[in-house]
Design a protein that fits this description.
Blueprint lengths: L1 E7 L7 H12 L4 E5 L18 H12 L2 E5 L9 H10 L10 E7 L7 H11 L7 E2 L7 E3 L2 H4 E2 L4 E2 L2 H18 L1
The structure holds flavin mononucleotide (FMN).
Protein name: FMN reductase
Organism: Cohnella abietis
Family: Belongs to the azoreductase type 2 family.
């Protein structure tokens, strides 16, 4: 079974992006072993300590190394990716450079109409930088950018329930499994 580490760009308890991660974890339980990585405990990136980073960084590095792929699910903050996610990617881009060649797919959820598209475009640029150089699932046909979250998630269960969105994600996930093999 494919092992996929999940980075979530929101620390909020009721995060829609976390809800999407939980939905995918349950829905694809027979296909993918999703493990949500802790990025809350990471300190701010500091080049002075990159050669011997704190435990939380070492754990994240280990998690990424042992994963067959990475799923990044992020909201958009001020037309870009949230600082917590960028900070995590900065840690991962140094010394061992564990994301180079790693299969990555991205997704995002917003309550508004734009479905995180601006953040996703920035994220793609970041993922193409020399220290990261991830093997990104080609975006054409695979853009899981969910708008109007309030209409598509069930407030009581905290899960994505919009059927056509779920079916679209099913197809992208199957493509990612082939892509990551
Ligand atoms: C600092 C900040 C900046 C935001 N900027 C944007 C933005 O640029 N575009 C957008 O669609 N929503 C923006 N939002 C609204 C988020 O999409 C919304 O809070 C969303 O629920 C956050 O994701 P989460 O539910 O996973 O925490 C912003 C929210 C915050 C807190």
């Amino acid at each position: 079974m494919l092992k996929v580490a999940v980075l979530i760009g929101s620390l909020r308890q009721g995060s829609y992006n976390l809800q999407l991660a939980n939905t995918m974890k349950e829905r694809y339980i027979n296909k993918i072993d999703f493990e949500i990585a802790d990025i809350r405990s990471l300190p701010f990136f500091d080049q002075d300590i990159e050669l011997n980073p704190p435990q939380a960084v070492k754990e994240l590095l280990r998690k990424i190394v042992s994963a067959d792929g990475v799923l990044i699910i992020t909201p958009e903050y001020n037309w870009s990716v949230p600082g917590v996610l960028k900070n995590a990617l900065d840690w991962l881009s140094r010394v061992d450079k564990v994301l180079i060649g790693k299969p990555v797919m991205t997704a995002g959820v917003s309550p508004g109409m734009m479905g995180t598209i601006r953040a996703q475009l920035h994220l793609r640029e970041i993922l193409a930088s020399p220290g990261i150089l991830a093997k990104l699932l080609p975006p054409a046909g695979n853009e899981i950018y969910i708008s109007s979250a309030g209409l598509k998630f069930d407030e009581s269960t905290g899960r994505l329930v919009d059927e056509s969105t779920l079916r679209f994600i099913d197809r992208v996930v199957d493509k990612f499994i082939d892509f990551a093999r």
